[in-house]
């Protein structure tokens, strides 16, 4: 495992130049029972999924009062980012916009434009590069810019604002350090009478076709997670003073049964471990930056129930959330991207970002064909933050 140290350690008031606003871009979630079905229709728009199937997923939200925890967590992260920026002497508006529910990205960008912003730096609440974690957001940015352009009377094909985005940050030191802290804390909660737990790194499953397509970014979605898992396991082993045996497992599969998705499912893996004699596990949701619905239901409800049924002692590690290393790292990433933009504008080489693990920093400007839904298949949907929006 290698560590590339941060290149940005200090900041000045103009350290985010040329950007005059930051956008915290997220998935979105319902705020109450009446929002659930409209939200799920937004998420699945164009996929032909009937309401009968959506109603099954809706019960996950209704189980928690109809409100997703993601909204409160995004507000907390936004506040933490504002505080960290202020601590470094940087005064810049931090917007919040969602793909699938209020506040929508287009509304946030329209307000930014009205307030005089023209260059926006986006920070996506997904650490990994894949269609769902990168390109789908970039397609959404493009359509949101088109919507704002129509509102303010921009000429056809012209956008009223520019959007750049921070690179995928799965191997940034701040993300890895915060994830390591969460794992070490979880091992501190283990019943002393239990066996030393096996560590299960958990992430959202994706279709095999999307996994194949994600390799264009430089390493596939699965390879990115394995790199993070190795880094966190090695760091936690040093801090705990005991070796950790670990596996990468998946949750939240939502496709039709005949479509191959990444496996093993966390519940299936718990059953396999139990059959092999494992009696204790720690589940670390490294695929998620906060404890939103996939964590609250798929892990805290379903996986914990599976473990209890099997008699396996289980502890769930926290997400990176608003942990200080993560927030500090996100601001470092904002400053890194701004420095790269200034360098590129001046005809210089981009800044090399800080990393942990065996993979290099991912690109800030995505390569043509990056992170499609299916490898080699051009959807014809334009995407921002790319060397070729049409590719």
Tags for this entry?
42% helix, 391 residues, alpha/beta, 11 helices
Structural commentary:
The chain is an alpha/beta fold. Helix content is 42%, strand content 13%. It has eleven helices and ten strands. It has helices at 33-43, 51-62, 70-87, 105-114, 131-152, 173-187, 208-213, 221-240, 266-275, 293-310, 324-345, and strands spanning 2-4, 21-26, 94-98, 119-124, 162-165, 198-204, 246-251, 280-284, 313-316, 355-357. The strands form three sheets. A four-stranded parallel sheet has the order 3-2-4-5, sandwiched between helices. It has a four-stranded parallel sheet with strand order 7-6-8-9, with helices on both faces. Helix 6 (173-187) packs across helix 8, helix 6 (173-187) packs antiparallel against helix 11 (324-345) and helix 9 runs parallel beside helix 10 (293-310). The model has no long low-confidence stretch (mean pLDDT 94).
